[in-house]
Amino acid sequence: MFEQFQTTVVDTGAASIFVRHAGSGPAVYLLHGHPRTSATWHRVAPLLLEHGFSVVCPDLRGYGRSRGPAPQDDHAPHSKRAAASDIREVARQLGHDRILLAGHDRGSYVAMRLTLDHPDLVQRVALMDCIPITEHLRRTDARFATAWWHWFFFAQPDVPERVIMADPEAWYRPKADPATMGAANHAELMTAIRDPATVRAMLEDYRAGLTIDADDERADRAAGRRIEVPLCLMWSTRDDLEELHGDPRLIWKDWADDVEGHRIESGHHMAEEAPREVADVLGEFFSRDR
Predict the structure, then answer these.
(1) pTM of this structure
(2) Which residues belong to the active site?
(3) How distant is the alpha carbon of residue 228 from its chain centre?
(4) Which domains does the chain have, with CATH numbers?
């Protein structure tokens, strides 16, 4: 994987962030979701290099080979604002004053927060399989809670760690097929999930989501803050986001001024399952300001 890429560990002050990066054009930052690492982009990243971009793939705080501070009762060290501050510092240390940003799953919430908090940094943003956390919560019913039960299970104290660490490979294996992911990507994931500190950090991500992150979104709404840069949405046709909530573009128009959307013929992990389609959408969207 990532044959043209170099790796760097960036000390952000609060965390150490493992980063894969390559290229010399406009900087595209790709933020992974749960429980993946930056390796999830191993098929998309080289295609974006071919489009003439620099590509930066970090492991989010606490995921993969990145490390963050110890968890706290308020979950603030694992909030999306904290994770977004890591990405801002990575960009500063790599010399990127403006970035093109894409996030998938949990990474999409970090991308959303970075775009809202630092519009001076983010030029365009793509969010994949995502609506705001508070929009999910506002629409929660028995159908959503049944389908997305893991949000509420992961938010419980202590129990999820004990359940997952009893056999982490068995827990994650059903959605981690090496043939679909790629063998090296799969091996990297298996290494990460065997680490109790990594599992704890991933769960803190969800605990922060239902508490401090949701509060931050409510504060955004109360203050009238919106995503002012162009927003591109992608959602998987074989996942359930549209089935549960309808066309996500309609939801995001309450949050952003300039919204477009693309259905991707894929399951949830679209960067692994439909890399060419993802890279083509990102490449076209990110090239518009050149």
Answers:
(1) 0.97
(2) 105, 268
(3) 20
(4) 6-286 (3.40.50.1820)
User: Distances in Å between the alpha carbon of 170 and those of 71, 173, 191, 202, 203?
Assistant: 25, 5, 13, 17, 17
Cis preceding-peptide flag for 132 (omega within 30 of 0): no
- The pLDDT of residue 118: 95
**pLDDT at position 197:** 97
Distance CA 73, CA 71 (A): 7
Check pLDDT > 80 for residue 102. yes
- What is the percent of the chain where pLDDT is above 70? 100
- E strand residue ranges, the chain: 6-11, 16-22, 27-31, 54-58, 99-104, 122-128, 231-236, 259-264
Encoded tokens for 42 = 């191993």
Q: What is the mean pLDDT of residues 166-176?
A: 92
**DSSP structure string for 121-142:** TEEEEEEES---HHHHHHT--H
Question: Token pair of 118, please?
Answer: 């630092």
Are residues 84 and 118 in contact, defined by beta-carbon separation less than 8 angstroms? yes
